[in-house]
Amino acid sequence: MIVKVIDRVESYKEAIKLSCDILEANGDIDGKYYEAIIGKINEFGPYFCLTEGVCMPHARPEDGVKSSNLCVLKLNEPVDFLGKNISVFFTLSAVDSSSHVETLRKIAEVCMNGEKLNLIIKSKNENEIQEVI
């Protein structure tokens, strides 16, 4: 898991691109993964918004995944994602449909725990966010 905290971005696409760039630099995905995510958004809308302030951009394993990982991009200033204000992007790369189940469980646990979610949304510290998750 890679955690990055930044102040702001101009658009949700910039946030997703940044998180994909981080995963790509780590060797987890290739460049076509970002394009696949944007294609899914264009086709289905913001379907991977999980709860207030949180989304989980992802695409299929065959869309450029090299290894499973998670980039947590936390914005200090929320960005509009097609009508939803998002502060936390859990950008997931998974090599198959079962290898990321534990990661999904952790994300769900955080999203269902208001206290943990609030800590992440308010935090400006990458290590603190990593500990919460």
From TrEMBL:
Pfam families: PTS_EIIA_2. One of its GO terms (cellular component) is cytoplasm. The keyword Methyltransferase does not apply. It comes from the Bacteria. Keywords: Cytoplasm, Kinase, Phosphoprotein, Phosphotransferase system, Transferase, Transport. Gene3D superfamilies: Mannitol-specific EII, Chain A (3.40.930.10). It is found in: Cytoplasm. PROSITE patterns: PTS_EIIA_TYPE_2. InterPro entries: Ascorbate-PTS_EIIA_comp (IPR051351), PTrfase/Anion_transptr (IPR016152), PTS_EIIA_type-2_dom (IPR002178). SUPFAM superfamilies: Phoshotransferase/anion transport protein. One of its GO terms (biological process) is phosphoenolpyruvate-dependent sugar phosphotransferase system. GO terms for molecular function: kinase activity. Residues 1-133 form the PTS EIIA type-2 domain. The phosphoenolpyruvate-dependent sugar phosphotransferase system (sugar PTS), a major carbohydrate active transport system, catalyzes the phosphorylation of incoming sugar substrates concomitantly with their translocation across the cell membrane. The enzyme II UlaABC PTS system is involved in ascorbate transport. This is Ascorbate-specific PTS system EIIA component. It comes from Clostridium frigidicarnis.
